[in-house]
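Q: What changes when magnesium ion is included in the input?
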Amino acid sequence: MGVEVSVEGLTKSFGSQNIWRDVTLTLPEGEVSALLGPSGTGKSVFLKALIGLLHPEQGSVIVDGTDITKCSSKELYEIRKLFGVLFQDGALFGSMSLFDNTAFPLREHTKKSESDIRSIVMEKLDLVGLSDAGDKLPGEISGGMRKRAGLARALVLDPQIILCDEPDSGLDPVRTAYISQLLIDINAEIDATILIVTHNINIARTIPDNIGMLFRKELVMFGPREVLLTSEEPAVKQFLSGDRFGPIGMSEEKDDATAAQEKELEDAGIGGGGTKDDFSEIIPQVQPNPGMPERKASARHRERVEEMLHELPENAQQAIRESQSQEDEIRRANAEGMDRQNNKGGNGNGNNGGGNGNNGGVNTEKQYAGSNDNTEQFPAYRAGGNPAGNS
Ligand SMILES: Nc1ncnc2c1ncn2[C@@H]1O[C@H](COP(=O)(O)OP(=O)(O)OP(=O)(O)O)[C@@H](O)[C@H]1O
Ligand SMILES: [Mg+2]
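A: The predicted holo structure follows.
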């Protein structure tokens, strides 16, 4: 069962350099949230503040009823067992094999036997596609493999809260699709609360229930993905479309001269190179693989969105309604596909596509089951598009 993480008025500086101030947000229990923001805005610092590795000078972080910014180190040690963390650089111990790195939290925090530890570690390494690499040292493998090993280690205690700092960085598009799907499946299985820091807009568009964005030392927005994805907030819009023109510059704050120059170019009909995707359409959220339980968070999230729907502009309301009905259709198709598979007496796993029909994200063409499909048996299992495509 996931745990809510409630952040109130959090402010962090290093010496005289303020990183962000007055950040307030709640990671709803069992939901998947994503944190976006230009490089250097303090996303990784935020993640570290959530587990008490860095000490904010103001505000609180309440986890399971305890304010981790003020509790004793003994309490903090206990609270940390709820977390699984994938650090941006993987943070593996260089002198330990991947197996021992992955086993580390189990040896540190549990009294499990070595044979139990072995079976858990091998299961997690297998989940991230590294079952053959257990003997390797971090220095002997690729960056993407280190990232996946870091994820295996983050999952090994079946954490109730999972923090992932750029799980996709250094991964190829196919591995990114698998890792994204894995996070959704884990969420469905154990209802863990998940926070993903990412620059990958396709992940942001298709994986989380909620999105937040840090910019200019503040949390610009945090809320249901549907609201952010249809937002007219200039920094959010610019970030999502990856355009040069807008409030975000090469160094975070754009100087007036650059802004004026770009305005002239824009007026002359010259674009800033961003994607021309139509952001008024919300791509349906990736669903758990067929055979997985329903995500418990879905219903709670839907309820929250319903409550705020009337406050949103008409076009946003319409986009949300459409994506909701597409998601319902995907779920129905997945369930039907599973039924058919079971009745056929097949091998039961049913996941022959590595995706579930909507984990595309690049094509705004609606990729839900039944649309222009040529895999008759399992319309919903058609491998999706390419979730990392435009990262
Ligand atoms: N331990 C530290 N001591 C001093 N300054 C730090 C420390 N850790 C981070 N910073 C500073 O905090 C700022 C935010 O860093 P952070 O790593 O959180 O950015 P980020 O948003 O994760 O960027 P990216 O997208 O590139 O990973 C940077 O200016 C960085 O130099
Ligand atoms: Mg970072």
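Observations recorded in class: Confidence is low (pLDDT under 50) at residues 346-391.
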